[in-house]
TrEMBL record:
E.C. number(s) listed in UniProt: 5.6.2.4
Gene3D superfamilies referenced in this protein's UniProt entry, alphabetically: Nucleic acid-binding proteins, P-loop containing nucleotide triphosphate hydrolases
Protein name per the record: ATP-dependent DNA helicase RecG
Domain of life: Bacteria
Stretches assigned to the Helicase C-terminal domain: 467-634
Lineage: Bacteria, Pseudomonadati, Bacteroidota, Sphingobacteriia, Sphingobacteriales
Pfam families: DEAD (PF00270), Helicase_C (PF00271), RecG_dom3_C (PF19833), RecG_wedge (PF17191)
Keyword annotations of the record: ATP-binding, DNA damage, DNA recombination, DNA repair, DNA-binding, Helicase, Hydrolase, Isomerase, Nucleotide-binding
Catalytic activity: ATP + H2O = ADP + phosphate + H(+); Couples ATP hydrolysis with the unwinding of duplex DNA by translocating in the 3'-5' direction
Biological processes annotated in GO: DNA recombination; DNA repair
């Protein structure tokens, strides 16, 4: 092999060979030399920063200490077996503790020698210790010469270590790889972008990420590589968006007509919020460009998305089209149907409901009316996308709670007209802006960030199990005032049996505390037949029962304005966005509403942060931001199917500023050179012409 480059299979790299190549492929999915170079350290040990033992405390994330290993001793038996080292410097001493690889450690550690120890300090009874610290023999000479002050740490696996590919081994490979291909490395970013954003050149960045000279050098490398990663994601997303607008002609809604105006002037029971007005205007402008609209509307529960959807549909109807609205569950579809019907009143246009339980006879009528154009608005569930459902001329589609629908389902709606209808996707799960820009980078995003005036903020409190009697007393008071109460239990697949038992025990307890005939309790959970569920739900909606005991089936969309108390049991087990959704079930009427978070006395740090966040704020976007910081982008609801979030170095939670910079940079490039035909943009055009591995980009949106 004369010319090795980043695309050369990894087995041709000196020091690798077929066997190592095999584990590298299997364990780390590294196939080429380029893949290896993009396998970045996950942290660095700052070899310039040393602490004295006296300075150590348990709040430190990690610390490096030079000292002498005085002794090593094995203590305990069986599962309690561990190795304890006494370690000392000129300020004090600490214990080093190991639970694993004891025999190997006993052989390799030499008491009496000086070591550099790196680990997380913990503290017990004033005694400092480190568990499983990294140990390196201290060589005073080396430290002085020491050219690598920031020492990279690569994650490795047991298998890799068997092939000498621990962090040091991987580092050696990186060195060989860099030496081998350094001169053939080409920068994927054009020069003028590097200059404009003050970015390191690519070869330099790669060198510095693996072998940083110092902290500044490392930070510059990290910034450059993060920028590049985010830049190319945005380049692709924004190019897709551009292509969509060019490719898909859209129905042109060029007038605001009678139906819209009649509704607005005569039927609308409240003034629209500024946010609602703004979003309706965005939709109006968007549907009058001749291109197909693909817009995501994010708005917290209760922000009034339904009326925005309705007015958009009226706009379509005024321009001679039909509209439909799809919801993920039958209950929700029903609620949209009654909500929309009530808002519209008689005489403006025709609305019907189509779900799985629509009787055949009515179904036939609906099909007929859709085809002859006498039906203006169809509201329903998945039933809408069946092939039998044909429209005379559908122009506008609203999808509620978007992440519950798959891509194919949405694509089917596109095909219900020769020119695809405009798509309005509504979600009540606010997603942090930066995340939305990446997940839905090729959609336009509207935000309803304002609640209708006059809403009383929901009071949220956190109670521990031993305060339960107070909570019952409070529930009684509220019920005496004529209000209704939700009590929600977690029901999680992995622990379903236990959860159902808790639910039953909780229910029995409630039945004792709130006995018939004074109190009536509804119960709804996912294991019940749909018929029973609906029946119980209806009893609560009609006010026949005062308490609704439920699992999270009520999470989405249910609207009972008289229900003013939400009690969430085992609240620490719910995710933040789920808690927020649940809380959104109350606070829908004129009364002061309450959300009571019940938890056990023992809380994890994260659990505590979640509950504290809920108590502190009711702003869905703020909550989503905390959720993003806590869990990282991959776990935010709705993101799981999206491959864009698997990044090599950038992190959407912490790199928002770089993301904005990269995105704005791409926007500017497309503005100036939409077809990327300028000489200076050749690299970018070339990048877009390659097939991107792994991610199916048409799946996003
Ligand atoms: P969501 O965004 O959660 O779907 P809805 O559309 O169901 O919210 O609206 C919640 C409630 O607020 C409904 O009862 C609706 O009629 C009412 N509403 C919507 N917009 C306004 C407004 N501008 N002023 C007062 N009430 C409003
Ligand atoms: Mg809604």
């Amino acid at each position: 092999m004369a010319d090795l480059s980043i695309v050369t299979p990894i087995e041709y790299l000196k020091g690798v060979g077929p066997q190592k190549a095999d584990v590298l492929k299997k364990e780390l999915q590294l196939f080429t030399i380029g893949d290896l170079l993009q396998y970045y350290p996950f942290r660095y040990i700052d070899r310039t920063a040393f602490h004295k033992i006296r300075e150590l405390h348990a709040q430190m994330v990690g610390a490096q200490v030079v000292g002498r290993l005085i002794s090593v001793q094995e203590v305990g038996e069986k599962r309690g077996r561990r190795l304890i080292g006494q370690f000392r410097d000129d300020t004090g001493s600490m214990e080093l503790v190991w639970f694993q690889s004891l025999s190997w450690l006993k052989k390799s550690l030499t008491p009496g020698s000086a070591y550099i120890v790196y680990g997380k300090p913990s503290e017990f009874n004033g005694q400092i210790s480190m568990t499983h610290p990294e140990m390196e023999l201290f060589n005073a000479q080396e430290k002085k010469v020491g050219n690598l002050t920031m020492q990279p740490v690569y994650s490795s696996t047991e298998k890799l270590k068997k092939f000498n590919l621990d962090t040091k081994g991987i580092q050696r490979l990186q060195q060989t790889a860099l030496e081998t291909v350094y001169r053939s490395l080409r920068d994927p970013l054009p020069d003028y972008i590097l200059q404009k954003h003050h970015l390191l050149a690519y070869p330099q960045a790669l060198l510095s990420i693996h072998f940083p000279q110092n902290v500044d050098d490392l930070n510059r490398a990290i910034r450059r590589l993060k920028f590049e990663e985010l830049f190319f994601i945005q380049l692709r997303l924004l190019r897709n968006k551009q292509l969509n607008t060019q490719k898909y002609r859209g129905h042109r809604f060029d007038k605001v007509g009678n139906k819209f105006n009649t509704f607005f002037n005569e039927r609308l029971p409240f003034p629209l919020t500024q946010a609602q007005k703004r979003v309706i205007k965005e939709i109006r402008l968007d549907t009058n460009t001749g291109a197909q609209m693909n817009r995501l509307v994010q708005g917290d529960v209760g922000s009034g998305k339904t009326v925005v959807a309705l007015m958009s549909m009226l706009l379509a109807i005024d321009n001679g089209y039909q509209a439909c609205m799809m919801a993920p569950t039958e209950i929700l579809a029903q609620q949209h149907f009654s909500g929309v019907s009530a808002l519209l009143g008689e005489g403006i246009c025709t609305v019907r409901l189509l779900t799985g339980s629509t009787p055949a006879k009515e179904r036939r009528i609906i099909h007929q009316q859709l085809e002859d154009g006498t039906l203006d608005i169809l509201i329903g569930t998945h039933a809408l996308i069946e092939d039998k459902v044909k429209f005379k001329n559908i122009g506008f589609v609203v999808i509620d709670e978007q992440h519950r629908f798959g891509v194919e389902q949405r694509a089917k709606l596109w095909r219900k007209n020769v020119i695809p209808p405009h798509m309005l996707v509504m979600t009540a799960t606010p997603i942090p802006r930066t995340l939305a820009m990446t997940m839905y980078g090729d959609l336009d995003i509207s935000v309803i960030d304002e609640l209708p005036a006059g809403r009383k903020p929901i009071k949220t409190v956190h109670f521990f199990e031993n305060q339960r009697l107070r909570v019952f007393g409070f529930m009684r008071d509220e019920i005496a005032k004529g209000r209704q109460v939700y009590v929600v239990y977690p029901l999680i697949k992995e622990s379903e049996k236990m959860d159902l038992l808790y639910l039953e025990a909780g229910l029995e307890n409630l039945q004792r505390e709130f006995p018939l005939p004074t109190y009536k309790i509804s119960i709804v959970h996912g294991k019940m037949p749909v018929k029973d569920k609906d029946f119980e739900m209806q009893r609560f909606v009609k006010g026949e029962t005062q308490i609704m005991v439920a699992t999270t089936v009520i999470e989405v969309g249910v609207n009972v304005p008289n229900a003013s108390v939400m009690v969430i049991e085992n609240a620490e087990r719910f995710g933040l966005s789920q808690l927020h959704q649940l809380r959104g079930r109350v606070g829908r009427g004129a009364e002061q509403s309450f959300c009571i978070l019940m938890s056990g006395n023992k809380l994890s740090k994260e659990g505590r942060t979640r509950l504290e966040t809920m108590v502190r704020t009711s702003d869905g976007f703020e909550i989503a931001e905390v959720d993003l910081q806590l869990r990282g982008p991959g776990d935010i609801s709705g993101t799981q199917q999206s491959g864009v979030l698997e990044m090599k170095i950038a992190n959407l939670a912490s790199d928002q500023a770089i993301l904005m910079e990269a995105r704005n940079s791409v926007i500017e490039i497309f503005k100036e050179d939409p077809s990327l035909s300028a000489e200076k943009n050749i690299l970018l055009a070339h990048y877009l012409n390659q097939r991107s591995p792994g991610i199916s980009w048409d799946k996003i949106s």
